[in-house]
Amino acid sequence: MQELNIIKIGGNILDNPTQLHRFLSDFASVSGAKILVHGGGKIASSIGQRLGITPKMVEGRRITDAETLELVTMVYGGLINKQVVAQLQALGCNAIGMTGADGNAIYAQKRPVREVDYGYAGDVAGSKNINAATIQGLLSLDLTPVFAPLTHDGDGSMLNTNADTIASVLATALAPHYEVKLFYCFEKMGVLQDAEDDNSVIPEINKTLYKELKDTGVVSLGMIPKLDNAFAALEQGVRAVQIGDAAAVSRMAAGGKAGTLITL
Amino acid sequence: MQELNIIKIGGNILDNPTQLHRFLSDFASVSGAKILVHGGGKIASSIGQRLGITPKMVEGRRITDAETLELVTMVYGGLINKQVVAQLQALGCNAIGMTGADGNAIYAQKRPVREVDYGYAGDVAGSKNINAATIQGLLSLDLTPVFAPLTHDGDGSMLNTNADTIASVLATALAPHYEVKLFYCFEKMGVLQDAEDDNSVIPEINKTLYKELKDTGVVSLGMIPKLDNAFAALEQGVRAVQIGDAAAVSRMAAGGKAGTLITL
Description:
CATH architecture of chain A: 3-Layer(aba) Sandwich
Function (chains A, B): Catalyzes the ATP-dependent phosphorylation of N-acetyl-L-glutamate.
Binding site for substrate (chains A, B): 40-41, 62, 160
Protein name (chains A, B): Acetylglutamate kinase
Strand order of the largest sheet of chain A: 5-8-2-1-11-13-14-12
Oligomer: homodimer
Subcellular location (chains A, B): Cytoplasm
Number of helices of chain A: 9
CATH superfamily of chain A: Acetylglutamate kinase-like
Distance between the termini of chain A: 21 Å
Pathway (chains A, B): Amino-acid biosynthesis; L-arginine biosynthesis; N(2)-acetyl-L-ornithine from L-glutamate: step 2/4
């Protein structure tokens, strides 16, 4: 089976033009089929502020009301996505910007209102909501899909969706067709034993160790959904999941060790 | 040869949600290969105003300084483009949002500074700057490309490009591969003999008549680039060019008469 690298970058890289350019240059040099998934970044909040849109957060999650949906559709799907695509084109990578609406690539459900109304937040039920054929078609044209963290509801509305989730469901849906490696890039060198010590990267985490780390509070609240997504992906046939910083991408893609390897 | 309908809509339709929905529903029902090209609309100016960006115009053209480029990249490439794509998906049309950067579809040159510095405005030198193979690839996947009025310079920057020009160069570049029909939708029923009389649609304009209409001042300043683009497209192999209102699209696509037919 052909290899497919799916790489997710977060806001910290997007917010720093120099780091972003260095990362994109590493990404462009990754050979073979690849997909980039990007998050949001502070720019959405700062543009929102200038527009008079106050960020609404509950338990670290953005509440996506109608005006926030417009904001993230503009900033994630337009500004960030197209700037990344244009830069990748300049680096010789034939990128194509995508959201879940484009080619009906990722269909999501508006999160049901329970205690909290998350507004236009989209939950992806699983790989059945990914249009794998379209993505395979794009890859077969030697295009590199670049996904913004947006999906659609099939009824004409965009939805705000977590970028980690998008990376994970893409990996799962494409696992039957490619040997998928999934990389989560974030601001740390990997999952740390000691949050204060950048040199305390845990080289490998399996399910047993993950339970221990959660029980002892070593992994933080922000890390848990990332790791949950990683295990979910592995359980559904993804070959490898790695977590590390952006600089590790070229090493990881070349098969070298970097960051934390997640295994079942 | 397979037929390909390329339809361009302007700001007036985009600014009116009811009209837009009606148009998209007509567009979705057009059978066979098709491409939608959309313009900007007032929403860019109104969001720009809220962001404190003052529109800068010279001779009816927007001057695209750095902050205006960010604005149009967000609004045209994000907000408008994705809303149109999501609505088309809901109507059963497998749309994929595009700018010139995506798949390197349309490469442009930053307009040289002469008397006026237009900033990040992109001029497309001709059909050689269109990556026809990528667009054919997307069409062969039964996707419907939806183009925002943006291109890129190949050096990592997006550029603001007139939507009429984009429609026209796409038509020209694809003319060797498809029987291309190009429709320009705007607020009038067609090119009018008398600007005050909506019933004075000129059914057909050829080059001779066009010269007369220009000499006698019948065609307005805003109409001239549209007609120039139309003739340029016909001279390069486009089968038919028609200009009319959005409601005419379903009639025109079905082969009926509507609006003004431009011929050589």
